[in-house]
Amino acid sequence: MFLHLLRYDEQKVFMQLASLAMKADLNVARAEAELFAVYEREMGRTFGDILGAEHNLDEVLASTVDMNTTTRKLLFFELLGMVVSDDCVAPQEQGLIDRVRVEFGLSLEVEKAMLQSISRLMALYNEIGALIS
Length: 133
Fold this sequence. Notes:
The protein has helices at residues 8-23, 30-43, 48-52, 57-62, 69-84, 91-103, 108-132. The protein is mostly helical. The protein has a single domain, classed as TerB-like. The model has no long low-confidence stretch (mean pLDDT 89).
């Protein structure tokens, strides 16, 4: 949704985080894989090399140290969307989300507000889909 606003290096970091989230429970759900492809289309780039590679969460998070709060919130919002896309948040995925939230200096209240926004957004997409079909 907002990924096109990011610079290439920030997009790459997001895709690394998304890849880690997708693989966290050792089961890449179809909805997650489809969303990865949607992200690529949104950014006008392919990141297949990222999906196929192994990433270290510590190293990825270290690359976000100089990012501003707005960028971190954007990354986190999009990451939450990825994690809930299959309607099942595995404990490993929640652990990754918790770690990123803490490293990004975001509160649990911010996470909850973002999840509520994502839920409303998905409901709106479903409503629009029903109207046009």
